[in-house]
Amino acid sequence: MPCRSVRDCCSKSKVIIMLRNRLLDTAGRMTPIFQRQAHRPLSGITKSKLTTVEVDDKSGIATLSMNFPPVNTLTMELMHDMIDSINEIECNKSRGLILTSSNDKVFSAGLDLKELLNPERKRLEEFWTLFQDLWLALHLCGIPTAAAVNGHAPAAGCVLATACEYRTMLPNLFIGIHATRFSFVISKWMMLSYQSVIPRRVVERALNQGKLFRTEEALDVGLVDEVACNKQEALDKCATFIATFDKANPVARTLTKRMCREPDVRDLLNDRAGDLRDCVDYVTTPLFQEGLCAHLEGLKKSK
Amino acid sequence: MPCRSVRDCCSKSKVIIMLRNRLLDTAGRMTPIFQRQAHRPLSGITKSKLTTVEVDDKSGIATLSMNFPPVNTLTMELMHDMIDSINEIECNKSRGLILTSSNDKVFSAGLDLKELLNPERKRLEEFWTLFQDLWLALHLCGIPTAAAVNGHAPAAGCVLATACEYRTMLPNLFIGIHATRFSFVISKWMMLSYQSVIPRRVVERALNQGKLFRTEEALDVGLVDEVACNKQEALDKCATFIATFDKANPVARTLTKRMCREPDVRDLLNDRAGDLRDCVDYVTTPLFQEGLCAHLEGLKKSK
Amino acid sequence: MPCRSVRDCCSKSKVIIMLRNRLLDTAGRMTPIFQRQAHRPLSGITKSKLTTVEVDDKSGIATLSMNFPPVNTLTMELMHDMIDSINEIECNKSRGLILTSSNDKVFSAGLDLKELLNPERKRLEEFWTLFQDLWLALHLCGIPTAAAVNGHAPAAGCVLATACEYRTMLPNLFIGIHATRFSFVISKWMMLSYQSVIPRRVVERALNQGKLFRTEEALDVGLVDEVACNKQEALDKCATFIATFDKANPVARTLTKRMCREPDVRDLLNDRAGDLRDCVDYVTTPLFQEGLCAHLEGLKKSK
Question: What is the pTM of this model?
């Protein structure tokens, strides 16, 4: 059976039931929500266009690096590559997934804001659906996930990090969802992703302010779990975290993870079209377009 | 278009949709949930009967003082004045709202308990609806809000403080929802307001005990954010907090705030009549009336 | 009127409404959710088969000891006795309930796993329903509850402790829900019980890992409230906790407690059959049966 994409799965609008009811295959065995495909085994380094997947043969952990200079902007192409890589890693039953960046200054600068500027409706819909897909693929990923945040992680960069189960971060960086600073209003599922990691009171204030946390502040509020001196140490800490699941049965772990995360994805999976419509309606308002223009002007000047 | 009251808005029973769907006006621009009225500009000091609104011309921040001796008991009149003042401040696009008391010993002593003693049903309904209105006006207020808690804040006094986005408090005061001590069972939305600020485990225990937190305890659990030495310092800290939103787009900020707070108000806005009925049914039980009598007797003796 | 069992109450499928709407009896007085029976007064020591109930005549607090050697495994018989004892203590209007163990090494080893091994469907249904009943009886118990965790509390042992309002624990013990280690996927209500005590982020990680917290770790994350040097000190701390409710009206306290806990029990009370079906479906999969076999083999070897 082919490896169904997140989008296929979700379009069936039964995902929520699948998440809840613990699917059984015809042999009465548990199956993960996203069917795994018989697939060429990963070994050594596989290069897709904009991501790199490296599997450690000893530990069985796959490291997924965003590799799209200059700042890993989440374009449609990068998001496509990331979803494919996540599915591939999941299908190949890696022991865990570490998300990091090939760029030592920026983890990911977030969504491609040019897609939000005077958008063509059809393309904006495709763009936002892809971002939903990416978040779902990472947030519900069946194997243990960790982020080695080795560069700045603003906006959607932070959303990707919070979709993982653990975060380590290098010093003197910024992480946070600063959407209100460029007039954007995030979706509820992005708020829930934030709230799955840091306390409600902190979330509200940070979202309203558009706060970017410095590494030390992020550690204080629990947005990151540990600080590492350098990228290798960050990767090592992620591997150590992934090893904490060694005594757990992998399928029971996956089902338990999804039960914990079901409240985060419930509304989105029940009404993906509604979230899409909200997004498109808001992005196409004069209010947002003016705010975005001013923000992009500001960025140009600061260069 | 006139400035619709919270009650008008909510009676349309579509508020929940308005909160969620980000209203657009006919020009495609965002509009806040409560329509703003063209209104005389505030400057200097405006006195209504039981509240004082002072706008700092330099900072643009409005300070709303409860000014109803001896202890700012929330009577129908005071609640009316507060709702009007909040709407006025919101409509005049102040940069923020600071809630405080003209009385240096008591922030607010809470609801007028005499309204709960052998109540006439019609009047009790009016009283409780007004309290719902007041809480909604403050909890969903479009501009940044902060409370300078310069006196004791028991029961509904605490509920008002927790409806703000930030709290600073003077030393040696008490704050908390001690309803069970006078046999009252609070509404779910009051619990959610508490829970938006302090952890669930602390909320349950404090509500069950009827706990009043001393300033230092309140700081420890996060019920207040900072302690100030005197009222001026408390007001200054509130102003500093309000300034943290300077980089955020105001409309995006308002919509984000309401998204964060939507779970707190959802059930109330979906069924205000149900909350009202629960309250009236409970208040008119012999159990509560006996408990309230005993409590009021105790207060008399302690004077 | 007879003391209705939790099961009777819940089968009426109106419990959720009862919880929310604050029941009134025909005289307009509040009544607790589970009707209390005229009952022989407890005094001194009452022995049922597998539990001991001791009421302190001075404090009015009842201590319920699990007394089923060797390790207080939750068999159908022990669960039956516990439910009866909880109902009896509640009906006799004790001032509080302390749950502890007669065994100084093990608080409770959790569910009787033999019931899950190659189960007969009918009996498994009865077993799981009884566990639901036990949790509901303790979680919604009308009087103040506290656990003196004087021995290890893995799995369902931990679930029982978290159903209480306060926990004190002796040093060098383990507590936690380690279900994934024996391939089990817990029900949502067990997750919610955990989450009512410790933060969401900690819950997800601990459940996924199947983590057993040492006493000191449990204190750090808030899973236990205090550490006691010995059993007597643990019991004393529980009694001190129960005394913190002295100023609260008992009925208002009960209704407030149930309002706080309503989100934890809502889904279960609305669909007990669904939770039962999920459990039976999962337990009877080859995946779980193989995982459980391996786990039981491991336990044998470690002896």
Answer: 0.89
